[in-house]
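Risk register update: the risk of archive-format incompatibility is retired. Evidence:
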Amino acid sequence: MKKILIAFLFWGCAILGQHPNEQTISKELTYNEFLGYVKKYHPLVKNANLEISKAQANLMMARGGFDPKIEVDFSQKKFKDKEYYSILNSSFKIPTWYGIELKAGFDNNEGVYLNPENTTPNNGLTSFGITVPVGQGLFINQRMADVRMAKIQIRLSQAERKLQAVTVLYDASLAYFNWKKNFEEMKLYENYNKNAEIRLEGIKSLIVQGDKPAIDSIEAGIIVRNRALSLEDSKLKLAKARLELSNFMWMENNIPLEISDELVPENALESTLQETLKTNDLLQNDFSLETHPKLNALQNKIEILTVEKDLKQNMLLPKINVGYSYLSEPSYIDNYRFDDYKIGLEFYFPLFLRKERGSLRLAKYKLQENQFALALERTQLTNKISAQKIEINSLVKQKKLAKDLVENNLTMLNSEERLFSFGESSLFLINTRENNLVSAKLASIALENRFYISNSELFKIMANPDL
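Archived output:
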């Protein structure tokens, strides 16, 4: 009878020898599937996609500076049956890329008190002209700069979209890994708690038969309560981790989802993680930084600042606008009389140019700041990737050592249990061995979690959300 009780007492060791991941689980939410939901439905990822749409709308707005324009100005005054004046000035303007503007107009003015300079033939007066900026604004002007910067902004938004999406996926990955870590710890404490309860019942039976002192039941009861306390704390952490993970689960039409208690994390995550994040390719091959979104974003910012600098530099030139318009009556529009024309000259030039020179200096300083930032970021990315590779390879070795420690502690526990069955050990030594085994398994779970996080950090450094 004593042998049967001892066998029953240590039946829980079969449970202890299993890792929680080795048990059959159902309703898995795999890591790859989880990331798919985040990439497709998470609001912050959708916001990142909106940045490109906003940049395209900004480009459309900038191109509006080159839209043809129709202008009509009509005014009339009558007083005491007298028509003081009736003035109609209309024009059709076509802005071109290099600051040149084409203009067609029609004026028809009449009245008793009309200003003589506004006098036109009875049928009105047509004009066809051109305005050319021969100084400031010829090769670059505000309209041209706005379009150029808007085109660059689209490329900048594409790079920033990737960076924002990667940040969301990284945060979601941390939440998933935390969920998995707490789930495994909860299963571990659950199994050890069951084993402690079985051992307590066995000790009580042996005490009744007189084979063990009564003090052993106190010690076994303490272990049960400690395990129950650890189990309850792990359940709390798991519940909070599950709610944190739910922040990243969304469906269409911005409908949030909540992770069910029946869902469990992926069992074989260690074998699929690097393939999901594409970090296995980087660990085996070199990674080109030329297509990195962060560097592309800085390069595009430099291009925008270069356009701004060119515009500021152009402001140092004098503003000289030359205009010529051919004039004709509507009925004689086919008979060219080049003696009928209107010309104009506009000249503007500040003597000291302090405002323009100061603005140009600021533009150059901003450009230099971003050039320095680009060189620094390139070096930092190279070092971060190298450091992350070293960390991942080190964690692989640490995980193997932790696994060996678990096996060694399990062997020591099994040996202590055999000695106990022969009456050559004590419950205190068994509990000590078991506590060492629990600590080793918790350390192994923590190392696995660090391995997952390290791979996700490498994924974040690579900044390629298009997996």
